[in-house]
Design a protein that fits this description.
The protein is mainly beta and 231 residues long. The protein folds into three domains: 47 residues, no CATH class; 72 residues, Immunoglobulins (Immunoglobulin-like, Sandwich); 81 residues, Immunoglobulin-like. The chain has a five-stranded mixed sheet, with no helix packed on it. The protein has a four-stranded mixed sheet with strand order 7-12-11-9, with no helix packed on it. Strand 11 and strand 12 form a beta hairpin. It starts with 5 loop residues before the first strand and ends with a strand.
Length: 231
């Protein structure tokens, strides 16, 4: 380049330093084409371009998540890889995956599986994985149980009686007093007994419960027992 030539770099908003010189420092947030317009002292002009590639993957964290990390065989789970735009994906194993080339496929899981996502933007590539564990469901004790005591005394500990079971899809849980009167009933494992009847705390005593539950694999569980309401 002839001494005394003028140089203009565009887009100028992305030039950090060196505007007007042969060497410019740029800092684009995305892949951009930079143009140098050169004018010599004799009035001759020429133009050159250079593409600066910016990776969406390099310098960022690629993460893979799943909505259900523990399932029973045959469950469909939702996978998600991030970043979710401007990149391509390849999921392995591809068997059972709805579309191995999108960010958020679903997958039918029959055995414990590591799902691996390769994420690339054509410049950089990163890999992350997530484990989905298939639980061998036993629709009975000890996978389903009712505690034998609780203390609804407002001390913040063990206040509510819940039916415990990870894969209960339906249930009918009833609690009776010693005279056989129904004091509580729930069809949802998330709704437990707080030790009240008709809006008032019951006296400390032993109560009888009956439980019918249906598990995710269709098995049905029946049981009954006692629970003590502690002071």
């Amino acid at each position: 380049m002839d001494p005394g030539s003028t140089i203009v770099w565009t887009p100028s908003s992305e030039v950090i330093a060196g505007q007007g010189t042969a060497i410019a420092t740029v800092g684009p947030d995305e892949t951009l084409v930079f143009q140098a317009d050169v004018t010599t002292p004799a009035g001759c002009t020429w133009t050159g371009t250079s593409t600066v590639f910016v990776s969406l993957v390099n310098g960022s964290e690629v993460t893979v998540t799943v909505d259900q990390p523990i399932v029973v065989a045959g469950t469909t789970v939702q996978l998600l890889a991030q970043p979710s735009t401007g990149v391509t994906y390849a999921w392995l194993p591809a068997d059972g995956v709805s579309d191995p080339n999108i960010a958020n496929p679903t997958a039918v899981v029959n055995v414990t599986t590591w799902f691996v996502a390769t994420v690339t933007d054509g410049i950089c590539t990163k890999i992350d994985s997530v484990l989905v564990t298939v639980y061998e469901l036993n629709c009975s004790d000890p996978d389903i149980y009712v505690p034998n005591a609780f203390s609804p005394n407002a001390d913040g500990s063990n206040e509510v009686l819940f039916v415990r079971g990870r894969f209960i899809t339906e249930m009918d849980f009833k609690v009776f007093d010693r005279w056989g009167e129904l004091v509580f009933q729930s069809g949802d494992p998330a709704i437990g007994w707080d030790g009240t009847y008709n809006g008032k705390p019951v006296d400390p005593a032993v109560f009888v419960w009956h439980l019918r539950a249906v598990c995710a694999d269709g098995q049905t569980y029946f049981n009954k027992g006692n629970v003590t309401v502690l002071p």
